[in-house]
Amino acid sequence: xxxxxxxxxxxxxxxxxxxxxxxxxxxxxxxxxxxxxxxxxxxxxxxxxxxxxxxxxxxxxxxxxxxxxxxxxxxxxxxxxxxxxxxxxxxxxxxxxxxxxxxxxxxxxxxxxxxxxxxxxxxxxxxxxxxxxxxxxxxxxxxxxxxxxxxxxxxxxxxxxxxxxxxxxxxxxxxxxxxxxxxxxxxxxxxxxxxxxxxxxxxxxxxxxxxxxxxxxxxxxxxxxxxxxxxxxxxxxxxxxxxxxxxxxxxxxxxxxxxxxxxxxxxxxxxxxxxxxxxxxxxxxxxxxxxxxxxxxxxxxxxxxxxxxxxxxxxxxxxxxxxxxxxxxxxxxxxxxxxxxxxxxxxxxxxxxxxxxxxxxxxxxxxxxxxxxxxxxxxxxxxxxxxxxxxxxxxxxxxxxxxxxxxxxxxxxxxxxxxxxxxxxxxxxxxxxxxxxxxxxxxxxxxxxxxxxxxxxxxxxxxxxxxxxxxxxxxxxxxxxxxxxxxxxxxxxxxxxxxxxxxxxxxxxxxxxxxxxxxxxxxxxxxxxxxxxx
Length: 534
Known about the structure:
The protein has 534 residues and is an alpha+beta fold. Helices cover 47% and strands 10% of the residues.
């Protein structure tokens, strides 16, 4: 009798435990659906132009730049599911109103919008506009949890990088092995990530410290050997491009992406200083920062790309400044260097006055063209989300900072997060959701992009306690543990299903994998803190 009673009690407790997450996610899903009805920085508000001219899909109810028709008294919105043939209609006083009245009724899939201008008798005067787009899958938790603890996943990924033969080679030969790993041609970014990953291993796994330090030192010395001399316009900057296919292209030959030194080499040199205490590495980082101070324009901006030897800009496009602002913040907060405060303040002021005001968070990728792009032609989470995280992790973010960060997070989710994919003809989904596409010019889910989007969501949770933000970040990071090869630690860069022949040639991008390592370690530390506070 006691055993039966115990069984029923245990079953009841188990069912109650299982029901709680479901109940919690029902509320979160309802809240997410309600938030999707809010248009994202629509152009009709006057804060910014219509930013979605190149957008192909939406999670938040969109509004389009359709012009009013002379003589029209009202407008009929006709939304049609191209797969199901179902239609939804509503009337509005202007053709640029958002689709909020019917948005959550529209099923996932290809969708066509037609806005008709109506006269006094509701006769059709003209078509104010048409648009085709994909109405994407909304957030719908719960999602599968992590398959291993976050710290374990992070360390496996870090050790996978550490044990790659062409990474190990840096311990004995500082010349990168381009023959076996062509991504070393993106020297500043990728080799900088090698240095930082080895410093993390040396810190987290003391029994591997000596071998990790040898690799880090060899890779860091290579960056030093290629850096511009003290009297050069770009003093201290290692090259964005080193030999290889990218350097062979006319657009890249002898050029450098302005923010690369702040993104890759500068933090790597600081990591070396933290690990070894050797002042030469701190001095290297300071040289880079002081060069940036000389390059900054009066309005606070920087060119996106320059001649590596003369420092001349390649065009009139401007760099997005989150890598530099984060680098300068670290120099001040961790090491006490206050000399860059004015530079940082001017850069932040420019970011608010131009990219945030225009809501044009364009791509800054060294392997795609930065020439001749139209506004909004290459939006990316890789600018929007990191800048949101920068704003949220300020010592005292203002209400304006938080509002801007929230808009940037919503932009990244709206345009780049995929909470699910449809099944293909083989009965499988060929992309691994939930995940995040990198940019308009490369509509592919990338591991680093999942981290980009997760980080500000976690920062927003830490700042406000917003559970929906936490669960969105968790779903993206949990999926990284699912796609990770648990027998090797390999974390794929592109979260896509590939045939066997192509998969055997799969090479990861080291800097993307290191982003996974850092973000999974952050998730480990945050969840440990959350458990301790219960």
